[in-house]
Amino acid sequence: MADVTIRMRPNGPLVIEGPFKLVDSRGTEFEIPPNKPAVALCRCGHSSKKPFCDGSHKTCGFVSDEAPTPPAVG
Predict the structure, then answer these.
(1) Tens-digit pLDDT profile for residues 16-44
(2) Peptide bond before 19: cis, by omega within 30 degrees of 0?
(3) What is the pTM of this model?
(4) DSSP string covering the chain
């Protein structure tokens, strides 16, 4: 399997690095330029380029910086 990394940017998009496919709810694949090292996907819902980020999170008041839940002890 190819190495893909998905990073959550604080108060911003999901940044995906590595080769991957992005498919919409109808099964149609989005064209991603092969020379692009990373793609940013919108999390705030305000992008005019959905599902891609256009920087709208900077002005719409989007706040999100989740951390993984630690494993249960015991």
Answers:
(1) 999 999 999 999 999 998 888 999 999 99
(2) no
(3) 0.84
(4) ----EEEEPTTS-EEEESS---B-TTSPBPP--TT-SEEEE-SSS--TTTTB--SGGGTTT------PPPPPP-
Exposed, middle or buried: residue 40 (CB in 10 Å: 0-12, 13-18, 19+)? Answer: buried
d(CA 69, CA 35): 35
The residue type found at 73 is V
Sheet with 38-41, edge to edge strand ranges? 5-8, 14-17, 38-41
Hey, where are the domains in the chain? 1-11+39-62
